[in-house]
Amino acid sequence: MNDIVPLMGIETEYGIIRENIEDSDPVEESMALLKACEQKSVFQLWAYFRERTHTDQRGFSVERLAQDEEEDEFCKEDRKRPYSYWDMKCDRVLTNGSRFYNDHTHPEYSTPECANIFDLVAHDRAGEYIVAECARLRNKALGEDSIQLFKNNTDYIGHSYGTHDNYLIPRALSFQQWVDGLVPFLVTRQLYAGSGKVGTECKELAPFEKLQLSQRADFIECLLSIETMTQRPIVNTRDEPHAASDKYRRLHLILGDANMSPYATALKVGTTQLVLTLIGEDKLGAVPELSEPVWDIKEVSRDLTGTIPLKRKNGKFISPLEIQEFYLEKAQAFCSGQREDWDWILKEWERTLNDLKNFPEKLSDRIDWAIKKELFGEFMEAENLGWDDPWMKSLDLEYHNIDPERGLFRGLEEEGRIPQFFPEEKVTQAMDAPPDGSRAMIRGKAVEHCADSIKNIHWTGVEYKDGSYSDLTRVITTEEVYEALKLEKERFA
Amino acid sequence: MSDPLRREEKKDAPSEKRDDGPKKPDVSSPGKDNILKRMRKVDPKQSEKYKQRTGE
Q1: Which tens digits make up the pLDDT trace of A33-42?
Q2: Residue A74 sits at the chain B interface (C-beta within 8 Å)
Q3: A388: CB partners within 8 A, 6+ apart
Q4: Distances from the Cα of A195 to the Cαs of A224, A304, A306, A471, in angstroms?
Q5: Distance (Å, whole) CA A364 – CA A362
Q6: pTM of the predicted protein model
Q7: Where are the beta strands (DSSP E) in A139-183?
Q8: Which chain A residues contact residue B34 at CB under 8 A?
Q9: Are the beta carbons of B47 and A411 separated by less than 8 Å?
Q10: Rounded distance, CA A388 to CA A374, Å?
Q11: Interface contacts (A, B; CB < 8 Å)
Q12: Alpha carbons A131 and A140: distance in angstroms, whole number
């Protein structure tokens, strides 16, 4: 376990559509999908009263979180539906400690908290399998294959939904210290973490029909904000640690893309964990501060070479690749030889930046945007199409379809063009079992052994009908987890 | 040890020759035909029909 970043997690909102209905209703379809789930779970027992989504890391609270006018109208209509809030949410907590529910009309899978990068990647992938299985069951019930789920972040006409990566970090450092160290890294992380998008949804920049690095960059509008549905920031300021708030913060990053490639997911969360470790250990030093990071994030996304000059606060220029190399060098100097998963990240981070610089074609077996570039390039050549053909956006969407029979990424895996990242057993095991050494073990065991006794459940604890409560807010390290498990021995016998 | 690490060890084994340049596309691969077939089945209008609501 890492002292600076002891736990990490990924939340993924999926796109959902029923293809044979002209105006597919995402509320109805998401509810039906969650109800189709056959994974062992507790249903509709999420402890919403323990949430504090309106508290800001900068020391204030907001009365409400904003959404755009269109979504306001949709919500007005939603209130007329014959369902309660609980009905629409359909919350499930599974035996692997994850949460699977409906968030803002999208089925969302939130992985259990993981201490290890590879565990997190396995659980993210397990989430895809669980969601895909629900779609299969729902289609079976309908007697057709109309329900399709997409692990992406856009509908190409301006509606985005998120893939959030989360890191538990010490409260001891000020929030501004984390922000200062992170911003240039986050603006340029898309060089390998971007999942690629055909076209743009950004009205402030010139029209763009080709492939860009990131799905989400077009939707980033400010540096800091508590908002998630409008005014999306580079660093989200929600202060909801899901742990003891005197000791911890949770860094809630909402700028990232949904990666289909497990390798890209590993590199995204692994490099972020290393940078946070450098900040927390005071080993990063002065970073190359950017003059216009919010503007830059969109410009970086439109340049597949990583060489576009970005203006620094000191008036000089630096490329996205050079920024990443700065962070890599710092991480190599401090983090090498400490953990096997870190060494893997360091080695692959270096290999990926070198390949981008010298042989970008080599990225097409592991980095989502580069896979798309090669694959779509072949298709355009075969069909004599350009990037502006509507078919290209449809292919872009289908890359993210999680149906193994249809999805393009799934097809590439099946054909062996994308090397398998994990043996299948590691992922199928993660569908049921929580990650070792994480407090998710306690939540998962509660669901596995005591489902009927649970009154409510949350990231921070489990309340039982007999009045007892397992408080997980200070159960963070592996030692604390095993100590807490000893106390729960009788309950889980 | 985690499996991605094992995969890396295999990749870096001394007996294996390392690449120094861009790979030549494997045009003979049957997989390429299969994935192209899968791509041709995609409705060109699919993205236009795909409407979602804003999420987080």
Answers
A1: 999 999 999 9
A2: yes
A3: A209
A4: 23, 12, 15, 37
A5: 5
A6: 0.94
A7: 147-150, 163-170
A8: 411, 414-415
A9: no
A10: 16
A11: 152
A12: 14
